[in-house]
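Tutorial handout. Part one gives the primary structure; part two gives the three-dimensional structure as C-alpha cells.
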Amino acid sequence: MEDRGTVVSMLSSQTGDSTQQSNEKVALTCKENPTLLKQIAEGLLHSDVKIAGDCAEVFSKVAETHPRLVALYAEQLLSSIHHKHTRVRWESMHAVAFISPLIPRRIISAIGDLQERMLSDQSTIVKDYSILCLGNVASCGEEEARMILPVLKQGLFQLGDKFLSKLLTAMIGIAKVSPSLAAEVLMYGYEYESHPKSSVQKAAKKLMKAAQ
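Part two.
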C-alpha cells in the first residue's frame, strides 16, 4: 500500500506526533468521510506495527461514537485481536467491544477466540476489553447470555482478583435479559459482596441489585 497522500500518512506515527492528537484528527476525518475507513482497514495489515497500531486506535475512536461505521470492518478487527503486537491487539479488541452489540451472532461464532484472549493474553488491557466485549453481547438476549455465562464463570475461576470487578459487571447484563439465569449470577454477587477490594464489592452489589 502506498502511504503518501493517503489518510494513513496523517497518522501519529507518520507525522512525528508522540500524542494521540493526529489519530484523533484522522478518526474525525473518517467519521465525516466513512469511505476512508477502507484505508484504515488496509493499514491494520501494514508491516509497520506502528501504522497498524495507529489504524486500530482510529477504529476504536470511531467506534466509540459511530459503531455502525466500524461494524463493516468487523472481520479485519477480529483478525487483528491475534496480532503479534500488543497495542494492535488491545486497540482492535477495544473497537470490537464497541461494535459487539451490533454483531452479536458474529461475536458468538468467535467466542473461542475471545475466550482465548480473555484467559491467555499477556496484556491486561486485552483481557479487560475482551471481558467488556463478552458482557456487551451477553446483554443482547437470552441466547447470547446462555452462551457467554460459562466463559465469564471460567474467568472468575482462572483470572484472579485483578479481573473480578469487570467479570461481575459483565454479568449484570445477563441478569437483566435472562430471568432464568438471574439466580445463578446472583449467587456470585453474594459470594463477592464482602471481598476486600472495594471495586469488587461495588460490582457485586450492582450485580445483586440487577439480579433480584
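Part three, for discussion. The mean pLDDT is 95. The longest helix spans residues 49-65.
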